[in-house]
Amino acid sequence: IGRGTSTFDGLAIARACAVSLARDNRCMTLFATHYFELTALAEEIDGVANVHLDAVEHQDRLVFLHALKPGPASRSFGLQVARLAGLPDPVLALARGYLDELEGDAASAGARPAAAQPKRDSGPQLSLFPSEAPALTRLRQIDPDSLSPRQALELLYELRQQL
Fold first, then answer.
1. DSSP code of 23?
2. Cβ of 100: how many Cβ atoms within 10 Å?
3. What is the three-class DSSP state of 124?
4. pLDDT band with cut points at 50, 70 and 90 for residue 22
5. What's the mean pLDDT in 57-73?
6. Do 47 and 26 contact (CB within 8 A), yes or no?
7. Is residue 124 in some structural domain?
8. Which residues, at least 6 apart from 66, have a Cβ–Cβ distance to it below 8 Å?
9. Residue 110's pLDDT band (boundaries 50, 70, 90)?
């Protein structure tokens, strides 16, 4: 709901849908959202409960605990989810810098943060998706039916060294 809209358009649409489902339809609904502002609906509308799935960060990795907990999540794990989705480390580092800047601006101004301005860098352009690993490229070139058991074993050791 609200995808491809401005933040406030999406929030308004999501809130209107949630309120309508709770007040008018009064049906059992699972309403998942990234809009933290909607967590207040549990206090405003009878029959609305706010829960989240528990997760923790361990050694810079997100660990899903698969436990339903009352109330809103205590924090966002957007960057960790982006890592799980396969974004490269340089992109995640850049996102971390922008996030720190946005959170700092919001905390000092007490208002909605402005968009972060990218810092100019004369370094090479980074690819959003890392290039294929050499071992995978080599593996794609192999006809396994043409290898003897000994050749297959040697190749396996060779590929392992490339990882």
1. I
2. 11
3. coil
4. very high
5. 87
6. yes
7. no
8. 53, 54
9. low
